[in-house]
Structures are given as C-alpha cells and as structure tokens.
Design a protein that fits this description.
Blueprint (H helix, E strand, L loop, with lengths): L9 E3 H16 L5 H10 L1 E3 L14 E2 L12 E4 L10 E3 L3 H6 L13 E3 L6 E3 L14
Parallel strand pairs: 1-2, 4-5
Antiparallel strand pairs: 3-4, 6-7
Helix pairs in contact: 1-2
Bound molecules: zinc ion (ZN).
Length: 140
C-alpha cells in the first residue's frame, strides 16, 4: 500500500461548504494562500459534525502546536479571515499556518505547502520553483 507523505486531513461536513466558498473567494482576491488551502480542503476526508473527533483541528476550535523541540504554543482559535482580529488568541485559516493545521489530529506534523501561487499570473506552481512555468516571471 502506498503511504502518504502528508498527514490525513479530516473536516466536518458543515464546515466543508464554508471552506470551499472561502477558497473560491481567496482565488478571486488573488490571495497567495489560496492554492495551499484549496489543496488541503480538496484532499480532506469529510465526516459528520457529531463524529468529528475532539482532537481534530477545526474552525472555531482551539489549537496549540509544537515545532521541532520548541515548547508548545499557547492555545489559539482557528477562525475565518473575516473574524480574525487578534493574532494572540486566533489563527487565520487563510494563512500558511492555519491551512496547514486544518483537519490535523493531535500528534500529526503539519504538511508543508507543496505548491505556491505565481505573484504575476497566479498560476499554481511547485513550492521550489524559481521561475513560473506559465508566465516565466521570477518567483521567490
Ligand atoms: Zn506566472
């Protein structure tokens, strides 16, 4: 059996629609996180709201995480960009961190983005690309 390099992502059905709307809106506004959040939402497994395990990161839930050997972060709540107003207590779902944490379970290691958006033409390109394959502009 093929082993996925990325941890599984689990999303409650009631939040899936809002997330897809958010992704569509983010693409329209040319948000740079749109391709990554879109990929995370697309590969997510859906489950009934009541069946979402307590330790899965979801919108409106508190999340704390630990990178490498640094101490765990204080708990913050994952929110939609429209509700985001306090970085001390909240994490914007439409940010590289928010998108990476969505749907993970306790103990999972967040996936790194595998794609990014070209700033010129907004095409989705590999995260390591130095030049856009579509419009050939340099990307960082
Ligand atoms: Zn481009």
């Amino acid at each position: 059996m093929m082993q996925s390099l990325q941890p599984d992502v689990l999303i409650a059905k009631s939040q899936h629609k809002s997330l897809k709307r958010l992704v569509a809106d983010a693409f329209r506004r040319r948000d740079r996180v749109a391709p990554f959040l879109s990929a995370e939402v697309r590969r997510a497994a859906l489950c009934d709201d009541a069946a979402l395990p307590d330790d899965v990161v979801a919108l409106h839930r508190e999340v704390s995480f630990q990178l490498d050997r640094s101490p765990p972060t204080p708990y913050r709540i994952l929110v939609f960009p429209a509700d985001f107003n306090d970085p001390e207590t909240q994490i914007n779902i439409l940010s590289p961190l928010g998108a990476a944490l969505l749907g993970l379970r306790r103990g999972d290691v967040p996936a790194d983005p595998t794609t990014k958006a070209c700033a010129e033409c907004l095409s989705v390109i590999p995260v390591a690309a130095k030049r856009c394959a579509f419009c050939t502009s340099q990307v960082s």
